[in-house]
Amino acid sequence: MDIKDVLEFTDYLFFSQTGKHIDSLQESILKGTLDGQKYSEIAEAEHCTEGHVRNVASELWQNISSALGEEVNKYNFRRTLQKPNFSITSSSFTKEFINVSNINFCYSNIQQLEIMNNRLAPSPPETSQTQNQSTIINLIEAPELTTFYDRTSELTTLKQWILEDHTRLITIYGLSGIGKSALTVKLIEEINSEFDYIIWKSFNNIPTLSTLQTELKDFFSQSQQTLLSTVIDYFRNSRCLVILDDLQDILKSGELAGQYLPGYEDYSKFFKQITTSPHQSCLILLSWTKPIEIANLETENSSAQTLNLKGLGEEATEILREKGLIDQENWLELITIYQGHPRWLKIIASTIIELFNGSVSLFLAEQNDIYLGDLEPGLESHLDRLSKLEKQVIYWLATQAQPVNISQKPANLVLSKPEFMQAIQSLIRRNLIEKVEGGGRSLFLLNPVFKAYIQFHTTDQLYSI
């Protein structure tokens, strides 16, 4: 896309509405928009306030919208220019005017507009991967969304980050089965029209960065006449949404959380480049664990955000209703015990149907310990990834009846204070322990379901050090 052509075209539109040509700041806004810059970045480059840039941009988009007869804003500007209806035809009234989406322009500019139209018009997308005429979508590796439970707050947050804040890197992490993929599939359903390309890739096959980048470039290039060199180039040239699922599969087991497998360390640099380079796209990572560099990027750059996905609240009653359980007065207690975790609740609901004919009250009667049953394989998959340090600390936490203050290392743990703190931080990033406030201090407790598992099993079998 030639920026000179875009500026001249938008200048025509702006002049048709105001009788004025766009000024240097408005040019910078247009250029910054195409480069994926935030208003704050444009303001810094132009040595003015972000508020002033927003006001000028608002007027600019309003006039362009009026000229084209449709809403145009920072987020759909490029896609609006690429729409097939920007055709150039002679007016039936006079050949001294041309028509672009019902807007008449002086015929003397027709040659330049034809050049621009040819550059902006995209090639027809592949029908097998297309949800609508303007967005090319490949969700072959995404799980099928059969049921979605209310995540209104999380969806609102994600849409704010992507559509308003233009966040470049988003990490959604949480326990397996908590609903990360379902939430993201639902998000795609609601915002797919805001993107030119959407693709879902899984790390199940543990692709190297080189392999992943090649696959992404092949996908982006299928409808473009000019091949670009890097993924970042495509991210700048088009509005792309990329989802990378099961990130934990390229992270080490037996080490502190978030460390990459040998040969996969370059992913860390790639994620940093996505966050710090100006572009108009978004990369979403789905993981059991929060990678180390993601935590660091969050503190350094507002273009990286993390959503720690927790269980459902009362919304989880829909799961129990679908399963046909009875004794609704006990449903919230059951949801609390299993922390609103969708997969856990579905498994336990099947047990209640099998053993108690669907009666929640009978299942809960005289039950002092948390029943695990078929939950155990899923819990083991998390605990098997722990390091030696984490296993020592998590076993100690399983013996504590109340949330603990970690300001002082327990005397019975053969660990240094730094090792103890590292293990706690790593377990937090795995969602195995949680921080709570008590008496103005931060206290920590082990997830009750994992605590029940550890207490139930012989420690010298599973937690021998």
From TrEMBL:
* NB-ARC domain: residues covered: 154-249
InterPro entries annotated for this entry? HTH_VMAP-M9, NB-ARC, P-loop_NTPase
Which SUPFAM superfamilies does the UniProt entry name for this protein?
Answer: P-loop containing nucleoside triphosphate hydrolases
Q: Name one Pfam family in it.
A: NB-ARC
What top-level branch of life does the organism fall under? Bacteria
The vWA-MoxR associated protein N-terminal HTH domain covers 1-83
Q: GO molecular function: any one?
A: ADP binding
- Stated name of the protein: Uncharacterized protein
